[in-house]
Amino acid sequence: MQLMYQAMALREETLSSIHCCADDISITWDALRDMKEYLRSGGVTAARFSSDLEMSKVTPPLIERSASGETLDVRTSVHLGRAWQAMSELAYTSYGERELFYRTGYTGEELEAGLRQFGFS
């Protein structure tokens, strides 16, 4: 989530270079706001992302707290999942490890581990 949030600080032209359209950006902002509300309520320590082949590419993601309450289950369309992965990878390469550590508090290793968990290929 931190990398997606940092990706949103990139210029729209930069995001369009990875084929993110205005709808992708708008849906992402809305989803990040929703996820932030779950985080504010406390107890959530992780997010698990998955894609649903049946979802339209403009369908907002479904965000639910897991049964344990510690994980957010985020289900998106395949299109949006791939866009989120591309945005996160772009943020990682655009800012670099040191800048991202200042912005997020996470090390390069931790951010890379988060990128590997996306799995929207």
Topology:
Elements: H1 2-7, H2 12-16, H3 22-40, E1 46-52, E2 62-65, E3 71-77, H4 78-104, H5 108-118
Parallel strand pairs: 1-3
Antiparallel strand pairs: 2-3
How would you describe this protein?
The structure is a single chain. With 121 residues, the protein is an alpha+beta fold. The chain has helices at residues 2-7, 12-16, 22-40, 78-104, 108-118; strands spanning 46-52, 62-65, 71-77. Strand 2 (62-65) and strand 3 form a beta hairpin.
Largest sheet descriptor: 3 strands, mixed
Structural class estimated from helices and strands: alpha+beta
Mean pLDDT: 88
SSE pattern, N- to C-terminal: HHHEEEHH
What's the total number of strands? 3
The Cα radius of gyration reads 14 Å
Q: Which oligomerization state do the chains in this entry correspond to?
A: single chain
Strand order of the biggest β-sheet: 1-3-2
Number of helical segments? 5
Helix content: 55-70%
Distance between the termini: 18 Å
Q: What count of structural domains?
A: 1
Uncertain stretches of 5 or more adjacent residues: none
Residue share in β-strands: 5-15%
Q: Which of globular, elongated, flat, extended, rod-shaped describes the shape?
A: globular
